[in-house]
Design goal:
alpha+beta, Beta-galactosidase, Chain A, domain 5, TIM Barrel, 3 domains, ten-stranded antiparallel β-sheet, 13 helices, signal, Glycoside hydrolase family 97 protein, Aldolase_TIM, carbohydrate binding
């Protein structure tokens, strides 16, 4: 009898403990106490709330994950344990907006068990930073489950206050993630349409949130959708069917579902939360990883001046570009194509790989070994372009050959998917590229997810409508440009085909396949090199276009990676001024939409001392002659205030260097 009584007391204590978990919210706060993530259960499963500075940003929102084995994880749930601790991480970045990152968050791991059915178990890991919240699912190996098939995540984001939304709608999951962004109130967004991430939310009280994901590894990419008036998540399905999104051997974890939060939109741009949530660098020797600027002759139509040789996929044409790079300090030359045929062997048209495509072999007449050897002597690296479907079946032999030639890196293009299979293909490409000392530039690819920390040989990604479109339409305007830093760039390095030096306005713009025009002013283009985070800045135009042109000296100087980033003026969808530091020098870039703007940002972030400021501004006649700019030099201190006058579709750049 005493044994039975003791056992009964133990059971009652356990049940009381479990019910007490469910009776109150589990509260995880940011280190500064301003952000609170509150989690609980009810008869419909797990739910959470978010408060920022005491204000409710997300009301009762669901954590929903569904498996083929047992359906939605929501029935008879009990929180069986919860542990909280503080995580502090100081780490270095080769690629990014800062070289030294400090990460501090409070972490709670919550174990949840079903009390019915097959009694599945999982844990929710929550991390709350001063600039955002992240949560993920951790599915342990368990007696009744050794593997799972995930049919979706139906997490909800029940945002309050009807915020202004900036988002990119997609028709389906097969996408290059290129399009024009929509700005509308949350209640005005069309229902049941896929929204790409990051998506920005501007609340009427002046607070901001952006939703995206971090550490996308061995999992499906996530989208948002407005369903029954509430935002929900959706996962990209595996190819050939619609039901299964992820196949996983246990234990397995989802990526982080991230909500960047701040009372300045600049806080989101400055945030390192995505890299802080990603695994540490997996490449032991990083000495060979050297970001920089590159040519991309496809954009300008492989333009060269009158020559004594026949232009084409040959040594002479590529050496024209290499010699120009060597003379003007451009780090890389990209070998892409000529006459719409790739540099490598292929028996199909339109850059699509045929049955005998082989990127380990150059076309007849192109001696890649000679190109690489000659470029190396001139201090220029060689990069190549390859369609992923041509590359992946011959991945090992192609990378072995590229390393033998001395190629530095490559653009991998036309990926257009983010299902689990494609995510794993991209991870494999990065890992094997690192073994052969190759950097990677993904095109037609999904957003970054902070993995430039893990694989710093990933220099940049496209995943956005950009200036390549100027070759065939006028969709990429300054109004389109200004949305990118507040959405796509929040995820990381943003490849945009920069460098067009034929500026035009709406009246003078013409579609040119060779030597294209770009919309906006010359200073707008210069500023994009500072505004956009991009470790591999393109210098896309024809070499002779730059020689002797005002502003080209700035392109030669501007770095592509940074030690520090500050947003000094910003209004989402209207204007942005960013200051970025490299060593002791600061670079400031400002862009605006079609309205034009006058900004007067403070420079109190500067160190003590006098700075020489080289300032490139829109000229007074820039409406008629968009390439015109005014260059002046001033003496500036941290007490100074810049007077930045940006024309319609205009910009300004400033290079600040300490006086000796």
């Amino acid at each position: 009898m005493p044994v039975f009584r003791s056992l009964l007391c133990t059971v009652m204590t356990l049940l009381f403990s479990m019910s007490s978990f469910a009776a109150k919210f589990i509260n995880t706060s940011s280190p500064d106490g301003k952000i609170k993530f509150l989690l609980n259960t009810d008869q419909n499963g797990l739910f959470y709330q978010i408060r920022f500075k005491g204000i409710l940003m997300a009301d009762k929102s669901r954590l929903n994950i569904s498996f083929k084995q047992g359906g939605l994880f929501k029935n008879s749930l009990v929180i069986s344990a919860s542990t909280t601790d503080r995580l502090i991480d100081d780490y270095n970045l080769i690629i990014g907006k800062t070289s030294k990152a400090h990460s501090e968050c409070n972490r709670t791991v919550i174990a949840v068990t079903e009390q019915s059915g097959i009694k599945r178990m999982l844990s929710i890991e929550v991390r709350v930073f001063n600039d955002g919240i992240a949560f993920r699912y951790i599915i342990p190996e368990q007696h009744q489950l050794k593997s799972v098939e995930i049919t979706d995540e139906l997490n909800t984001f029940n945002l309050t206050q009807n915020p202004e939304v900036t988002t990119l709608f997609r028709e389906n999951y097969t996408t290059s993630h290129e399009g024009i962004y929509t700005r509308a109130k949350l209640n005005e967004l069309k229902a049941d349409s896929l929204m790409d991430m990051p998506t920005l939310f501007e609340f009427p009280n002046g607070n901001y949130m952006a939703i995206t994901e971090a550490a996308l590894l061995d999992y499906a990419g996530m989208y948002l959708i407005k369903h029954n008036g509430v935002l929900e998540s959706r996962l990209s399905p595996l190819p050939g069917q619609a039901d299964i999104k992820v196949k996983a051997v246990l234990p397995h974890s989802s990526p982080w579902r991230v909500m960047m939060i701040g009372d300045r939109v600049g806080t989101l741009i400055e945030s390192n939360i995505l890299t802080s949530l990603s695994p540490s660098c997996r490449i032991k020797d990083v000495s060979w990883i050297k970001p920089g600027k590159t040519t991309f002759p496809w954009w300008n139509g492989n333009a060269i001046p009158d020559t004594s040789f026949a232009p084409g996929n040959n040594y002479e044409t590529n050496m024209y570009y290499v010699n120009w790079c060597a003379k003007y300090g451009i780090d890389y030359h990209s070998v892409v194509e000529y006459g719409l045929h790739e540099w490598y062997v292929n028996d199909s048209a339109g850059f699509q790989p045929g049955p005998n495509a082989d990127p380990s072999k150059a076309v007849p007449g192109l001696d890649m070994q000679a190109v690489c050897d000659s470029a190396k002597k001139r201090g220029v690296g060689i990069r190549v372009w390859i369609h992923w479907k041509a590359l992946y079946p011959k991945l090992d032999e192609t990378f072995t050959q590229l390393e033998k030639w001395g190629v530095s890196g490559l653009m991998c293009d036309f990926m257009d998917r983010d299902d689990q299979e494609m995510v794993n293909i991209q991870t494999e490409i990065l890992e094997k590229a690192a073994q052969h000392k190759l950097h990677i530039q993904f095109h037609g690819a999904y957003k970054p997810t902070g993995l430039s920390r893990t694989y710093p040989n990933e220099f940049t990604r496209e995943g956005t409508l950009n200036y390549e479109n100027d070759k065939w339409n006028d969709n990429v305007t300054p109004d389109a440009d200004i949305n990118i830093p507040f959405t796509r760039m929040l995820a990381g390095s943003t490849d945009y085909h920069l460098g067009g030096f034929h500026a035009a306005n709406k009246k003078t713009f013409k579609v040119h396949y060779t030597r294209p025009y770009v919309l906006g002013t010359r200073c707008h283009m210069l500023a994009m090199y500072v505004v956009l985070e991009n470790a591999l800045g393109m210098v896309c135009d024809a070499p002779e276009v730059y020689i002797g042109q005002p502003g080209f000296e700035f392109l030669q100087q501007v770095p592509t990676t940074w030690d520090e980033t500050r947003v000094i003026a910003a209004k989402a969808g209207k204007y942005l001024a960013i200051a970025r530091r490299k060593g002791a020098d600061w670079y400031i870039g400002a862009i605006t939409d079609h309205d034009g703007v006058r900004l007067n940002p403070k420079l109190d972030f500067l160190s003590d001392g006098n700075y020489n400021a080289e300032i490139y501004s829109d000229a007074k006649d820039v409406e008629q002659y968009p390439d015109n700019l005014l260059k002046e030099t001033k003496r500036i201190t941290k007490a100074s205030i810049l007077d930045m006058i940006l024309a319609s579709g205009g910009g300004q750049v400033v290079h600040l260097s300490l006086s000796k």
